[in-house]
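Me: I keep going back and forth on a fold encoding question. No explanation is needed for now; the record alone will do.

Assistant:
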Amino acid sequence: MASDDEKPSYEEARAELIEVVRALEAGGTTLEESLALWERGEKLATVCQEWLDGARQRLDAAMGSDEE
């Protein structure tokens, strides 16, 4: 996984997000641990959305340039 200063790849963020969700669904964590997992999951979901938004913008730009 990338350091906190470095944005993980979409695949890295998605894989870690899956693990966070599994851990939350499994239970057995303290409230503090659950909150930390939730916060990490929120950050990872944001990273994934940023990657997807960027891909959509590049796709839209490529499709727009084909129309000209």
